[in-house]
Amino acid sequence: MTVDYPTLAKTLAALTEGETDTVALMATVACEVHHADDRFDWTGFYRVTGPEMLKIGPYQGGHGCLTIPFSRGVCGAAAREQAVQLVADVDAFPGHIACASSTRSELVLPVFDGKGRLIAVFDIDSDQPAAFTDGDAEALTRILSAVFARAE
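-> structure tokens emitted (152 positions)
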């Protein structure tokens, strides 16, 4: 099954309408995105909890790393650069953190609240190499922007 982004966007808009709590929004997004595509092996958020530090938030899949500094890994790069990280081969990414040995490719997107502050990164791992496309990154960026625009 491949994700239908227009339907996913409508579903998430309906499920999150009126919600402003970031944890509730993250939990809902992680669940819906995770079950939307067979490529998505681990789907979740790492929240900005302190200077240059991410901590695991709501997720779907096996265990994740509990903390990730901005200086390490794909999630850290997304937070540090405040830019999408699309990694076709995690073994070729300098400083990749292997939270799960099954991960072959990764897509990490920065998440901003309505005031433009970085509040988290959204991490999607796949057990398939080169599983993600620019189209995935663009569609998910739009979805995250819409959902978290009203986050407090």
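The chain has a mean pLDDT of 94.
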